[in-house]
Amino acid sequence: MSNRTFTLAEGQPVADPSVSTTLPTFGGGGLTTLGDTLLIEVLSHFNRERIPERVVHAKAAGAWGEFEVTNDISSLTSAKFLNGVGKKTPILFRLSTTGGEKGSADTVRDVRGFSVKFFTEEGNHDIVGNHIPVFFVRDPVRFPSLNRSHKRHPATNRPDWTMFWDFHANQPESVHALMHLFGTRGIPDSIRRVTGFGVHTFKMVSADGGFRYCKFHFRPTQNTTHFSDQEATRMAGANADFHTQDLWDAIARGDLPVWKLYVQIMEPEQAETYGRALFDITKVWPHKDFPLIEVGQMTLNKNPENYFAEIEQAAFSPSNMVPGIAMTPDPMLQARMFAYPDAQRYRLGVNYTQLPPNRAICPIYAPFERDGMGTMTRNYGGDPNYVRSSLGTGVPSQIVSNVRHTERIERNAILGQNEIPVDDEDFLQPRELWNRVFDECERRKWVANVSETLEDVPDQLRDAVATMFSKVDPRIGQLLDAKAKNSSRL
């Protein structure tokens, strides 16, 4: 690389960027002035070089890659990036913990955010999910409270298990996600071996306007493996950035991480009688009823050249959908479709879509969204900034609208605070997980993991937690009670 001359931000040459302009005094002192543009520019930029970190999902690693279609599903969706075997699409990947701040440890027990941005010829499409298949709540108004209960206590400024369990014991629809979180899946030993789930139900819309419901799944081609609590705790102290380093080093040495993308498909006729689990993200669709259909393969092949520019400024949202994929009446999905872009407008500014990691590769013409801080384009020149102008050059899209179908409103439905009550249905799938998926070793580990968090929790709340899990299986409550009695003797 040829040598480059140091300059100020606007290009003026600088003789020595390590020395400010001063008027020397006795004793090695010096007087600075407002005329030292180098000093003023460096200090003022330093004061502003941090942007607000994400309230959740702040600690993350990411990389660039490519998605390739391995199974044509054009009969299911008109989305071009999913059609035609061999079709390749550039992607940006980001995986994060949820509760911790930017400097926190990678190897904590936590839900991982799993985000992929596809740069398609029809615009950006984002799959923004988690590494477990279900979520803690189904009412979006509880989302901020959920995350606060997993973060720091407002008085002590420390993570607090009493706060954590107080929230969940009073929102028992979270029991399914808790079963996953406190199992071995809760502490991955590598980003390269985590699963990824879109979690929500979406629609796939075919070229003729027909639709089917779908869920997205990413599965690593390597076996999923995990840390024990002891290994994770040791690594959090030895190398808080272990997952970040592991991903970077693997890509650098050519050991490229690979995931297969699958979909589950539900026909509209099946959906009519499927019930609450159609849109309730505390539930899964059983694979025996809705088998995985392979779509393609995602390979990470390039580390970022600059983390801040490419990963910290990356903005993902489930509202980013291309033609052929559409939203559903999942309240949590609809709330996230607002909340995620709004978070990025706050963090990065209203023109965050113009930043390199978010910039679409297809032509953009949105002259009704212009101006604002951080505009980096020609800002549409003198094109009309109002709709239905006879002087502009914009034309309507010829793509058939994919909003040809809506779900029927329930008979006698009333707009109001229609809470879905917690009933036995909320415990059926956790019960299946405990009885049919977990083996005895996993069950013992799960009880130990939960018991450890309950040691300093008030007795009344500990009893409430045991009661909640007893509804999954009475044995869980018995094991938790036994662990608590043993701990109290010690």
Automatic annotation (TrEMBL):
The keyword Lyase does not apply. It catalyses: 2 H2O2 = O2 + 2 H2O. The active site is at residues 57, 130. GO terms for cellular component: mitochondrion; peroxisome. PROSITE patterns: CATALASE_1, CATALASE_2, CATALASE_3. CDD domains: catalase_fungal. Pathway: Alkaloid biosynthesis. GO terms for biological process: alkaloid metabolic process; hydrogen peroxide catabolic process; response to hydrogen peroxide. InterPro entries: Catalase, Catalase_AS, Catalase_clade1/3, Catalase_core, Catalase_haem_BS, Catalase_immune_responsive, Catalase_sf. SUPFAM superfamilies: Heme-dependent catalase-like. Residues 7-395 form the Catalase core domain. Its cofactor is heme. GO terms for molecular function: catalase activity; heme binding; metal ion binding. Keywords: Alkaloid metabolism, Heme, Hydrogen peroxide, Iron, Metal-binding, Oxidoreductase, Peroxidase. Its EC number is 1.11.1.6. The keyword Oxidoreductase applies. It is an enzyme of class 1 (oxidoreductase). It comes from the Eukaryota. Heme binds at residue 340. Belongs to the catalase family. Catalyzes the degradation of hydrogen peroxide (H(2)O(2)) generated by peroxisomal oxidases to water and oxygen, thereby protecting cells from the toxic effects of hydrogen peroxide. This is Catalase. It comes from Penicillium rubens (strain ATCC 28089 / DSM 1075 / NRRL 1951 / Wisconsin 54-1255) (Penicillium chrysogenum).
